[in-house]
Amino acid sequence: xxxxxxxxxxxxxxxxHFSPEILREVRDKFVVKDEDTITVTYPKSGTNWLIxxxxxxxxxxxxxxxxxxxxxxRSPWIESTGGYELVKGQKDPRVYTxxxxxxxxxKSFFSSKAKxxxxxxxxxxxxxxxxxxxxSKINVTEKPETLQQYMEWFLQGNVIYGSWFEHVRGWLSMRxxxxxxxxxxxxxxxxxxxxxxKICQFLGKKLKPEETDLVLKYSSxxxxxxxxxxxxxxxxxxxxxxxxxxxxxGTVGDWKNHFTVxxxxxxxxxxxxxxxxxxxxLFPWE
Length: 286
Ligand code: A3P
Prior knowledge:
Elements: E1 7-8, E2 11-12, H1 20-28, E3 37-41, H2 47-58, H3 64-68, H4 71-74, H5 81-89, E4 95-98, E5 117-121, H6 124-136, H7 147-156, H8 164-172, E6 180-184, H9 185-190, H10 192-203, H11 209-218, H12 221-226, H13 261-274
Parallel strand pairs: 3-4, 3-5, 5-6
Antiparallel strand pairs: 1-2
Helix pairs in contact: 2-11, 10-11
This protein binds adenosine-3'-5'-diphosphate.
GO molecular function: sulfotransferase activity
Protein name: Sulfotransferase
Subcellular location: Cytoplasm
C-alpha cells in the first residue's frame, strides 16, 4: 500500500473512516462494560457472518432485526469515526465489532469482565485472497494491482489494520481468558450448527432447536448475499466499483485457486517464521 495512507501507531488506516483522535480516544478513554458483546477479527475472516449470527442469536432467530437494520448499525465498528458515535449512543447491553489489534484495543477491556469477546481467525491465505478481491473493488484506499502486489503488502503488514501475524499472535495470547471465545472461519464452515451452539453457550443464551434452525437459515451465505442489510450494497456508490461484493465465495481453501506454487512457498516460509512456536492445533488449516 503506498505511503499516502496515514499511519496511527505503526498501523495504516484510511483516514476517510478513521481519525487519530478517535483511535486514541477509543484506546485510552472508551470504557468497556461488563455486559458488552464484542466481535473481533482480522479483516476478511468472517466478521460480518459472525455479526449476523450474534444478531440472530440475540433475536432468537427472528430475522426482523437483520432485515431492517444494516450490520454496521447493529454491531458498529468501534474504531471508525461513525461507529464510535453509534456505540457511545447504544443502550445496554451493547453489541459492537472491532478489527483493532490488541495494542490499539480499549485499555479498559483488560480490566473488565466484559461479556464477551469473540475472536474469529481464518487461514491467512484465504483472508489475503478475500482482501485482495475486496480492496480491488472498493475506493477507500489504494487498490492492489495484482495479487502478487497485495501479497507483498500483506506479508509486510503494510495493509489496513497491520500484520495478520501480529494481530493473531496478540489476540491469541488472550485465549485462556474466560471471557474470550476463539473461533475459526473454518470451523464455522465445517460445522456451523455446533459452532453456533458454542456461541450461544458462551453468550449464555438458550435457544430452542427450531430457533437455532432460524439462526442458521438467516445467517447462511445465500440469505446474507441477498439481504441488503448484510451484503454491503447499501454502501454509497462512490465507495465501490463494478463487481464489488462482500459475499464473494464463502469457502475454505480458495487460495489454492489463486496462489502460484512460488507464491505458496514464499508465503509458507514467512508463515513458518512468524508463527514459530504456536501449536498447530490452534489453527484448523494446518
Ligand atoms: P470470501 O471473500 O472468501 O468469499 P469479513 O466479513 O471479515 O469481511 O469477511 C468476508 C468473507 O466472509 C468473505 O469471504 C465472505 O464471502 C465470507 N462470508 C460472509 N458471510 C458468510 C456466510 N454466511 N457464509 C460463509 N462465508 C461468509
